[in-house]
């Protein structure tokens, strides 16, 4: 969060760890939403496309289930997890299938193994004078992983900000009959009716092996961050997105500040060799990460709202001072910052290290007592975004200091993605809102101003019908998700056609993909496993009770209510058991 002067970083741990009894899959935060294990008996590491076909064939012949994982594991929901206690599932990791990157300069495309990391792909493309136009802001992802989950940058221009809308070909290994050797490779492009299902497939159709992406002649970006009062940004976002190709907005609601990023394509001849080394993705020393987390925990425990606001103000001031990690060369000296597309479109310097013993790492590395947070990402039709922001402002204006918790992280990150024909993508021009907020070490521990973030979350997904980002969010965000996609039934038909035995599905992935409500236990609302309908879904023993939202009255949230008669609650609870 605070950045570091160190440029070397301890690389993240491998996502799959095995012992004598089996293999555990972890996401990059080390903890899944339900805090349960994600486990399979074995893992395999194929190195070629034919290796993958043979693995899938053997699984099909033996009636085994397969869950595909990558070398990064930055997906928050349990899409890659097998059915609980399943003994007939194994992990197929693409972490060693990461060699081939073939650039076709004449056709302006690149074909890449699905296990290749985004940074390796970008660097290879830039070496030959071309540029990948769209990418997520975080580079610690594989090509197959980012395609599968709908990863994106920010743009309403040309093909838009979603990477899958720049994909022109996909190879997919799927189960087959005995005559086809129990598995086959499908090569899909826009002429194939299966293509729009495969472009965002959540790992449910088969194993993506090759991806072909369109490229453009190399270009530079020019970025200027402008700090504005937030009084009218809900009326100005559309104009910003239409005037600037890669624009975004970072909104700090407790500070009444909206930072507009004027981000435009410029010719290679424009002077500048800048880089985007976003502060949140820089390496932190272990001591800094641990001290930031310890401070936040202490403020939570003391219910010190003013302390959190002081912390948020310090973070914002530091970001403004250093350009949020933009560097004109070695340091930030002022706007605009101009640099090649490959150095400006994505970042993640905390990932890279030539020496594993350097005492710095990504701030959320699970091996240290560093940052631990939730990430909510909602995708709104552009026509509904203004009213959502107006509602959030109404909630903010009741008590602005309650919003300091999100401003400690990165406020509300607002990006733009264009309408897509992929079945599990957005069918209209949309606005993506992403915000991070504190998560407690223990699942039963309520959070300061927890009700605020639950109301914003429910407001987004249920009042305004926002779609959840497939790779982020707490489980409740996916409730009823199948009703939000006009082509959902088309995707289901393709899944049945390509994987009739559900080899690539599991109870865990179906909970997300089909939007099933699974939580009803005591405290289930504290971590987004359910929406509270009873006080026991919160934590009455710590004075958190299920209450209605303050602006969105249909929301049901866990609110700190110390005036509630706990003895009456206990008596009622005993009498109803």
From TrEMBL:
Per the record's keyword annotation, is Zinc included, yes or no? no
Q: Which InterPro entries match?
A: ALO_C (IPR007173), FAD-bd_PCMH (IPR016166), FAD-bd_PCMH-like_sf (IPR036318), FAD-bd_PCMH_sub2 (IPR016169), FAD-linked_Oxidoreductases_BP (IPR050432), FAD_lactone_oxidase-like (IPR010031), GULLO2-like_C (IPR055154), GULO_Plant (IPR010030)
Question: A Gene Ontology molecular-function term?
Answer: FAD binding
The chain positions of domain FAD-binding PCMH-type read: 36-218
- The answer to whether the entry has keyword Signal is yes
One Gene Ontology cellular component term attached to this UniProt record is: membrane
Q: Which pathway is this protein assigned to?
A: Cofactor biosynthesis; L-ascorbate biosynthesis
Recorded hits in SUPFAM superfamilies, A to Z, give: FAD-binding/transporter-associated domain-like
UniProtKB keywords = Ascorbate biosynthesis, Oxidoreductase, Signal
- List the PROSITE patterns hit by this protein, alphabetically: FAD_PCMH
Superkingdom of source: Eukaryota
> Which reactions appear under catalytic activity for this entry?
L-gulono-1,4-lactone + O2 = L-ascorbate + H2O2 + H(+)
Any single GO BP term: L-ascorbic acid biosynthetic process
The EC number on file is 1.1.3.8
Record family assignment? Belongs to the oxygen-dependent FAD-linked oxidoreductase family.
What is this protein called in UniProt?
A: L-gulonolactone oxidase
What organism is recorded for this protein? Kingdonia uniflora
């Amino acid at each position: 969060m605070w950045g570091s002067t160190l440029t070397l970083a301890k690389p993240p741990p491998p996502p799959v760890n095995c012992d004598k009894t089996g293999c555990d899959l972890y996401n990059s935060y080390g903890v899944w939403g339900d805090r349960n294990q994600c486990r399979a008996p074995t893992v395999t590491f194929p190195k070629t496309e034919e290796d993958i076909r043979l693995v899938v064939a053997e699984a099909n012949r033996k009636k085994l289930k397969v869950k595909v994982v990558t070398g990064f594991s930055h997906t928050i929901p349990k899409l890659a997890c097998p059915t609980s206690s399943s003994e007939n599932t194994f992990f197929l990791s693409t972490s060693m299938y990461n060699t081939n990157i073939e650039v076709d300069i004449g056709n302006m495309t690149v074909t890449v193994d699905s296990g290749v990391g985004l940074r390796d792909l970008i660097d290879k493309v830039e070496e030959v004078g071309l540029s990948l136009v769209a990418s997520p802001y975080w580079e610690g992802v594989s090509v197959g992983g980012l395609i599968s989950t709908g990863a994106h940058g920010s743009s309403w221009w040309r093909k838009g900000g979603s990477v899958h809308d720049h994909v022109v070909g996909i190879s997919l290994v799927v189960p087959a009959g005995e005559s086809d050797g129990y598995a086959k490779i499908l090569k899909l492009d826009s002429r194939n009716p299966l293509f729009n299902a495969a472009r965002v497939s959540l790992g449910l159709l088969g194993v993506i092996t090759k991806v072909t992406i369109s490229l453009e002649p190399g270009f530079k970006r020019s970025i200027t961050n402008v700090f504005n009062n937030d009084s009218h940004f809900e009326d100005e976002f559309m104009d910003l997105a239409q005037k600037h190709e890669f624009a975004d907005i970072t909104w700090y609601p407790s500070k009444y500040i909206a930072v507009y990023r004027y981000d435009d394509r410029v010719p290679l001849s424009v002077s500048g060799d800048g880089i985007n080394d976003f502060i949140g993705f820089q390496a932190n020393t272990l001591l800094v990460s641990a001290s930031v987390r310890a401070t936040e925990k202490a403020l939570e425990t003391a219910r010190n709202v003013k302390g959190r606001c002081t912390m948020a103000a310090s973070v914002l001031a530091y970001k403004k001072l250093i350009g949020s990690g933009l560097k004109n060369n070695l340091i930030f000296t002022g706007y605009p910052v101009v640099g090649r597309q490959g150095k400006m479109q994505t970042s993640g310097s905390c990932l890279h290290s030539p020496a594993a013993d350097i005492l710095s790492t990504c701030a959320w590395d699970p091996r240290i007592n560093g940052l631990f947070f939730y990430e909510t990402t909602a995708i709104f039709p552009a026509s509904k975004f203004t009213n959502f922001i107006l509602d959030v402002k109404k909630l903010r204006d009741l008590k602005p200091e309650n919003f300091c918790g999100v401003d400690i992280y990165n406020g509300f990150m607002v990006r733009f993605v264009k309408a897509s024909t992929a079945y599990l993508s957005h069918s209209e021009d949309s606005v993506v809102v992403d915000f991070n907020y504190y998560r407690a070490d223990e699942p039963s521990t309520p959070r300061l101003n927890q009700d605020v973030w639950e109301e914003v979350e429910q407001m987004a997904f249920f009042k305004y019908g926002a779609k959840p980002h497939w790779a982020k969010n707490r489980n409740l965000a996916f409730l009823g998700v199948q009703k939000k996609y006009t082509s959902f039934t088309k995707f289901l038909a393709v899944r049945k056609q390509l994987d009739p035995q559900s080899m690539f599905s599991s109870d865990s992935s179906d909970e997300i993909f089909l939007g099933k409500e699974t939580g009803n236990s005591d405290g289930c609302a504290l971590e987004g496993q359910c929406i509270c309908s009873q006080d026991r879904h919160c934590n009455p023993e710590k004075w958190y009770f299920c209450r209605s939202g303050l602006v969105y009255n249909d929301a049901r949230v866990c609110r700190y209510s110390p005036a509630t008669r706990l003895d009456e609650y206990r008596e009622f609870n005993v009498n109803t058991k």
